[in-house]
Amino acid sequence: MDRESAKKRPHALSRDALQSGFVDEMIARSSVPIPVLSEDERRASLEETLAAQPAPGDVWLFGYGSLIWNPAFHYVEQQPVLIRGWHRQFCLSTPIGRGTPERPGLVLGLDRGGSCRGVAFRIAEAEARTELELIWRREMVTGSYVPRWVRLHGPGIPDNSFAIAFTINREARNYVRPVSEADTAQVIATAAGALGSCRDYLFDTVHGLEGFGIRDRHLNRIARLVRQARS
């Protein structure tokens, strides 16, 4: 694994930063004309998602990208899992967090089709609303994701368990249809923004997955291309 992926980096999206409204402030400071969800819209999205919970009790959350290596929320258990019907893809353009308007970056989303191995976090029922409000401040900023319940599969997961997953909104204006791995790697190798570089985001995700015994061949191929582009 690339040495860069093994470094323990401080992350701008800390729990304290999210609680203080850092993401909204970052967008406001950027002067990039991005429509953001209001507090009321975010609250309504969370309420609608919780109302659709398949069964009462603790809440599972599915992580497939930065939530794996920088959760910034409280949970009582984490398990490697598989979901079906969705796959991990660099399909969300970002002109602020991991890029600039002149050189937008790419971050991950869950796009339709295939399957995805990731990490499920179990949040205690008593803390679920508080922790999910924090997560909504992080993920549901511009409406680029659609939260939905997905079925979990894994030896450490009870049968018929579901988790919240942030799937890509294909109607979002910064949704990017998949391109070649070489083109994706070229963007990731050169883009950086207020939250750091796309390169670090990729390597941290690969390293985080491997910590749970998960190897994503697609991401690994892109990582090799990124290293080659920067050598």
In the predicted model, the low-confidence regions spanning at least 5 consecutive residues are: 1-6
Query: If you compute it from the alpha carbons, what radius of gyration comes out, rounded to the nearest whole angstrom?
Result: 17 Å
Average pLDDT figure: 93
Helix/strand structural class? alpha+beta
Compressed to H and E, one letter per element, the order equals HHHHEHEEHEEHEEHH
Describe it for me?
Helices cover 38% and strands 26% of the residues. It is built from nine helices and seven strands. The N terminus is likely disordered. Its EC number is 4.3.2.7. It is an enzyme of class 4 (lyase). GO terms for molecular function: glutathione specific gamma-glutamylcyclotransferase activity.
